[in-house]
Amino acid sequence: MPKSILDLIGNTPMVQSKVLNSNPNVKLLFKLEGHNPGGSVKDRPALNMIKSGLERGDFDRNSKLIEATSGNTGIALAMAAGIYGLNIELVMPENSTRERVQTMQAYGAKVILTPAEIGIEGARDYVMNKVSNDGYVMLDQFGNNDNWKAHYQTTGPEIWKDTEGEITHFVSSMGTTGTITGTSTYLKEKKSDIKIIGVQPEEGSRIPGIRKWSPDYVPSIYDSKKVDEIRFVSEKEAIQMSRKLASQEGIFSGISSGGAATIALKLASEIEEGTIVSIVCDRGDRYLSSKIF
């Protein structure tokens, strides 16, 4: 029987670094989340937030859904909402790439752009105001447990299965923190000594999709006990690695994936042996109008 496009979310492939990793005793694997139908890792939580919210009765087809996003979550929500017949308004900073805005609109969503200088925090404040005063329902990827549970239910089990339980380190950029929280929860249930490394931007660096949150905006789904170490990466390093991934490994991805890969490769050079899995969270084609490529 033919599948819905939503049935193709998950079970993304992993490939081994054949060029950039120079430690023969370390296997470095990239999990290619750009192979999801919406083009990013955010397809997983977007589907779970919409499906679970509908099942609980949190909203229905008459509801006015709204969400703040830096890009990938909005694209995934627009895709899923269209299939479920839901109206959704997506709010993002005006310096987001045109490709991301156009993709959301192509899926049928309304897009509101907030001033670049107030960033994603400003977009979140805009959404909270609409929820408080205009009867909107927020999916709240930053505080919705269906976000991290999507990765507990799918990403973690896939990684464990595909590495045959040999994974020793997991590296993920941190935005909403859903990917790292859910995947860590599952992997540490399987093997408690797996090291979970989160990646955030250095002070002064702006990397789309990953954040070093100010205290008032730390996602409530984040559990610091699930992350063994946080490492920092510069915008320059992340951009350079995105280019290297494309030109040397054939992996075309965005800057947050470059940031995670930067840390994963440093880690590979530090440890004697092991199996590292690094999340490649999206595809590079939605950044072609930016300075990355």
From TrEMBL:
Cofactor entry: pyridoxal 5'-phosphate
- Catalysis performed (reactions): O-acetyl-L-serine + hydrogen sulfide = L-cysteine + acetate
* Source organism superkingdom: Bacteria
Q: Name one GO molecular function term.
A: cysteine synthase activity
What range(s) does the Tryptophan synthase beta chain-like PALP domain occupy? 6-282
Fetch the InterPro entries from UniProt. Cys_synth, Cys_Synth/Cystath_Beta-Synth, P-phosphate_BS, TrpB-like_PALP, TrpB-like_PALP_sf
Its Enzyme Commission number(s) read 2.5.1.47
UniProt keyword list: Amino-acid biosynthesis, Cysteine biosynthesis, Pyridoxal phosphate, Transferase
Checking Pfam families in the record gives: PALP
Pathway listed: Amino-acid biosynthesis; L-cysteine biosynthesis; L-cysteine from L-serine: step 2/2
NCBIfam families with a match to the protein in the record:
cysKM, PRK11761.1
Which family, according to the similarity comment? Answer: Belongs to the cysteine synthase/cystathionine beta-synthase family.
Task: List the protein's name.
Answer: cysteine synthase
Give the organism, scientific name: Croceivirga thetidis
Which gene does this sequence derive from? Answer: cysM
